[in-house]
Design goal:
Helix content: 25-40%
Number of helices: 11
Structural class: alpha/beta
Strand content: 25-35%
Distance between the termini: 45 Å
Number of strands: 14
Largest sheet: 8 strands, mixed
Order of helices and strands: EHHEHEHEHEHEHEHHEEEEEEEHH
Radius of gyration: 20 Å
Strand order of the largest sheet: 8-9-10-7-11-12-13-14
């Protein structure tokens, strides 16, 4: 079995619980180095997690002979740069979502992966979680009959950090870093899981607005789209809503029933059929990225195939950019 020795570029919040510990839970995998531009942050993370090396320069981490695989957990604007650096060094990459800050950067990543033969995987981990696999099973088994429509609805109030008078805005609200606002950060998970179930989206258009005027990025988005399977869908996102409008819900409507579920709250799945209403509780593992990271590691070890690649992730960015009118 090939022993994987990961180097982390970035050590922010997502690496603390969702992903970081999972790399050491997989057989034949460990974390040997971590990098942050902030020296204290890199050192602290390494000490707290028992990682032997820390860097403040990404190229130094990539060049480390003990590192043979790279996890990129930085804001999207740097994903393409770091992924290409790693692949050109012959080291496979696992990149946080979205794959990049634009569809064009995704295409660059895919081109380099093809040219070098070095794989690039993307952290659309919900595909591998039991909760969403249950939803897919319900649809695939025809429990709700022929699918007629898909509706995504998401609304949350502003966070304290969203107010410009609180200091520098979060990077997720800076389009040059994130690709857009919260829509570009959160909608990818919803769109990816829907494309995983129904196939890629071939047509998409949207309307974006800044209604709250708290920051420059869009804070309200409405969209419609069509999957390659012919299923039409729509989405509504609002990040400056009143608390009474708070919602995290996707509905898949069939001619024999309906299944509804959340994407971020993991509330019980509701299945409505002629037999009545069922509430399905499906627990996820403690480290939500573990099933995908395990699949990535087994792919690199030659004992499995992981299909959550940069190629499969790119259609999400295409849809995001179409909805936001980037092209």
């Amino acid at each position: 079995m090939k022993i994987l020795q990961w180097g982390f570029i970035g050590c922010g919040e997502v690496t603390e619980k969702k992903s970081g510990p999972a790399f050491s839970e997989v057989e034949g995998s460990s974390v040997v180095a971590v990098m942050s531009r902030q020296e204290q942050k890199a050192r602290s993370y390494a000490v707290r997690h028992g990682i032997p090396k820390w860097y403040t320069d990404a190229q130094e981490l990539i060049d480390d002979p003990d590192v043979n695989a790279v996890y990129i957990a930085t804001p999207p604007s740097s994903h393409a740069t770091f992924a290409i650096m790693a692949m050109k060094a012959g080291k496979p990459v696992y990149v946080e979502k979205p794959l990049a800050a634009s569809y064009e950067d995704c295409a660059r990543i895919n081109r380099v992966s093809e040219e070098t033969g070095v794989p690039c995987f993307v952290a659309y981990y919900r595909r591998y979680l039991p909760y969403f696999q249950k939803v897919k099973e319900i649809v695939d088994n025809g429990i709700i009959g022929k699918v007629l429509n898909v509706q995504i609805r998401f609304a949350v109030p502003p966070r304290e950090l969203d107010y410009s008078n609180q200091g520098e805005l979060p990077w997720r609200l800076q389009p040059d870093i994130a690709g857009g606002g919260y829509f570009y950060d959160l909608a990818p998970h919803q769109l990816d899981i829907m494309q995983h179930i129904f196939g890629v989206i071939l047509e998409a258009r949207g309307i974006r607005a800044n209604r709250g005027k708290l920051y420059d990025a869009e804070d309200s988005v409405s969209a419609c789209f069509e999957f390659e399977s012919g299923v039409p869908g729509s989405g509504s996102w609002c990040f400056v809503a009143h608390d009474s409008a708070r919602e995290d819900r996707i509905e898949i409507i069939g001619d024999q029933g309906l299944v509804s579920f959340s994407v971020f709250d993991y509330k019980p799945i509701h299945l409505h059929t002629s037999e009545g209403i069922q509430e399905l509780v499906v627990p996820n593992p403690p480290y939500v990225q573990y099933p995908l990271i395990k699949s990535v590691c087994e792919h690199l070890q030659g004992i499995g195939i992981c299909e959550c690649t940069s190629v499969s992730a790119t259609p999400v960015n295409w849809v995001l950019d179409r909805i936001l009118g980037k092209f």
